[in-house]
Amino acid sequence: MSISPYVRSSRSSRSPRKARSAAVLLSLAALAGCGGQPADGAAGSAPTAAPAAAAATTHAVAAAPTTRFTENGVTVTLTVSGWQGSRGTLTAVFTPEEEGFHLYSTDLPAGGVEGVGRPTTVAVRGALAAEGRLRAAAPVRSVSLPGVGAPVPVYPDGPVTTTLAVRAGGDGDATVLLGYASCSEREGCTIPVSDRPVRLRVTAGRPVFTTS
User: Fold this and answer.
1) Dihedral through CA 92, CA 97, CA 100, CA 104, nearest 10?
2) At 212, is the secondary structure helix, strand, or coil?
3) From 64's CA, which of 30, 43, 145, 156 has a CA 20 to 30 Å away?
4) CB atoms within 10 A of CB 36
5) Which ranges in the chain belong to alpha helices (H)?
6) Which residues pair with 79 in a beta bridge?
């Protein structure tokens, strides 16, 4: 929409001050009709404090503590999120490095089925304690393996996300212990990982991963 910067008067006796006032009013009315907003400082304009408040809120939200490592064919990403008071959620994502590899169910016995497979495990100790069982966001399927008389419960090929509700018992050191094994029905299995430690430090009631 084009707005003319000039306002013509039918009365030659109108004073310049009145003409300028009429021009401002007409320009504001035209902007309102186009959906525009009057400039800052114009009559009727609202303060623009919302963006500043949103920016302050964004900066106030701290990033969730995260760390990752790769060992024996699997990359594990750990995140602590949803922390409120002394409680939060520990999320572990297990991602096989190669296509066609799967992880075993969290419900698999510690020694596997007839010695085959190792369960996917996440445990905590020290200043963190688990609240409830480890949960996996993936369906379980059963596979039959040569030489094994019973079906073996596994997850579909690819990454598996697990969550564990945790609680801080106070400031201090904590450890996450991880266990897993990845297998392919065509290429066999990688070497199992058992009780692989990841260190944290709980300070002021909040856990942060450490490098040591």
Assistant:
1) -30
2) coil
3) 156
4) 13
5) 16-33, 50-60
6) 66, 91
Taking the C-alpha atoms of residue 103 and residue 99, their distance in angstroms, rounded to an integer, is 12
Bridge partners for 193 per DSSP: 180
Secondary structure of residue 58 in the 3-state scheme = helix
Q: What are the tens digits of pLDDT across the range 126-184?
A: 999 999 999 999 999 998 877 888 989 999 999 999 999 999 999 999 999 999 999 99
Both tokens of 5, joined, read 């910067």
Per cent of the chain over pLDDT 90 is 57
Q: Which of 12, 31, 35, 33 is nearest to 23 (CA)?
A: 31
Nearest to 89 by CA among 52, 125, 57, 64: 64
Q: What single-letter DSSP state applies at residue 113?
A: B
